[in-house]
Amino acid sequence: MPTLLIRDIPDELNAWITEQSHSLRTSRKEFVLALLRSSWLGDDDTPVFEDVPVAPARAVEAIPFTFIDLFAGIGGMRIGLERVGGRCLFTSEWDRFAQKTYEAWFGEMPEGDIREIRPADIPDHDVLAAGFPCQPFSIAGVSKKNSLGRDHGFRDVTQGTLFFQLATVIEIKRPPVILLENVKNLRSHDGGNTWNVIRRTLEELEYTIFDNVVDAAAWVPQHRERVFIVGFDRRVFGESVRFAFPEPPAGPLPRFRDILDPRPDRKYTLTDHLWGYLQDYAAKHKAKGNGFGFGMTNLDGVSRTLSARYYKDGSEILVPQGETRNPRRLSPIECARLMGFPDNLPVVVSDTQAYRQFGNAVVPVIVEAVGRQIVSTLGEHLTRRPNGCLIKPTTRQPRPLQGKHCPTASPGTETKRSMTV
C-alpha cells in the first residue's frame, strides 16, 4: 500500500486519533487505516478492526525514524530497530567476515573502520545505535577540571580509543537519541574508570542518560546479561525525559531444547579426546575449589552465555546426548536461534567465523524491546511539540528534523500537523 501523507490535521482530531490508538493498543497508522477501511463505527465511536493485517495488541506507535548502525557486527541492532519502524541510513563494521554476513542479510556492504570515516559524511539521523568495544581510558596527569569541566573535555581522556570516535560522531551529528550496548562488566571495567568516563562524556555532550543491565533469558533460552545505554539530547527533549527499560515478558521462560535441531550433524559431537580433556580439566579445578569447567545445559532450562570463543571447544554450552554418546556443541544455525536470529538468514561464513559472529552479536529481540520504549518516549515527545514533529538541532542552533514524515518548520513557529500513513 502506498504511503499517504494526510496534511492539515486539526488539533482536536489529531488528539482524538492519539487517544483512540492508545486505548486500543494499536499504532496511529493502523488505527487510521482501519478507520478508512471501516464502513461504520462501533457503538463507542471506534473503528471496527476486521481486516487489519497487524493485530492491534502487537502494533507499535507509528513513528517512522531513521538510524545509523555503528560497530554493527552482523546487524542485531538493525533487525531490532527495523522491527519498530526504523530505517537504516548508514552502517560501519570493520571485520571483513562480519561484512560478508551483513551484506548477505541486508544487501548492503557496511563502511569499514570508523576511524577512517569522516563524521560529516554520515547522514543525519534520529537514532545512533552502536555496540561499541570496551577499552580502558587513561586520565593520568589530567585534572577533573580540565578533562570534564570544559567544552570538548572528552577529547583529553578518550583520545586514541574507539569510544572517542563514537563521541565525536555524537558531538558533530547530534542525533536526538543514542542507543549503545556493551558487556555487563563495562561498569566495573578498569576499576570503574571506563564507565565513569563514558557516562560523564555523554552527559557533557548534553544527553540525559539511562542505563540498565538486561538479561536475555526472558526472551531467548540463554543467560546473557548486557548493559544498554539510552541517551536523549537535552537540546531536543529538555531536562526531563520519561523513559523506562522494558520489563521481561510474562509467562514461562524459553526452553533450550526448542532451538535444537532434531537430527544434528555428527561432526558437532565431541571427540573422545576432547571430551576426556574437558572432564579432566573440570575435575582438576573442582579439586582446587574453583568453578571452572564445562557447561552441560539443562534442555528444559537456559544455557550459559554464548561467547566469541565458542569455536574453540564449545565447553560453555554443551548439549547432552544420553549416557552412551559424548555431548556435542551447537551448530551455527542453533547458535543463531539461541541469539534470536530468524531461521531464514543464511550462514555464509565458516563455522569458526559464525561462532565468533553470533558470540559477539546483540540479541535482536532485546533491541526491539528497548526500541519500543524509545518509540514510546518519542511519541510522548511528539505530542507535546506544537508542530507535532521531532525538532533536531544543529550543533549550535536548533533546526527542524528534515524528512518526508516531518513538516519543515522554524523553531518556535506554529504549523499545522501532518501525519504519515
Query: How many domains, in number, for the residues?
Result: 3
Helical coverage, percent range: 25-40%
Q: Indicate the CATH topology of the largest domain.
A: Rossmann fold
| Poorly predicted parts | 1-7, 38-61, 139-152, 393-421
Number of helices: 14
CATH architecture of the largest domain: 3-Layer(aba) Sandwich
- Tell me the quaternary state: single chain
H-E order: EHHEHEHEHHHEHEEHHHHHHE
Whole-number mean pLDDT? 79
Computed Rg: 24 Å
Order of strands, widest sheet: 3-2-4-5-7-6
Query: Biggest sheet: strands, sense, closure?
Result: 6 strands, mixed
Beginning-to-end CA distance, first to last residue: 10 Å
Count all strands and give the number: 8
CATH class of the largest domain: Alpha Beta
Strand percentage, roughly? 5-15%
Which geometry do the CA atoms define?
globular
Q: For this structure, what is the CATH homologous superfamily of the largest domain?
A: Vaccinia Virus protein VP39
Structural class: alpha/beta
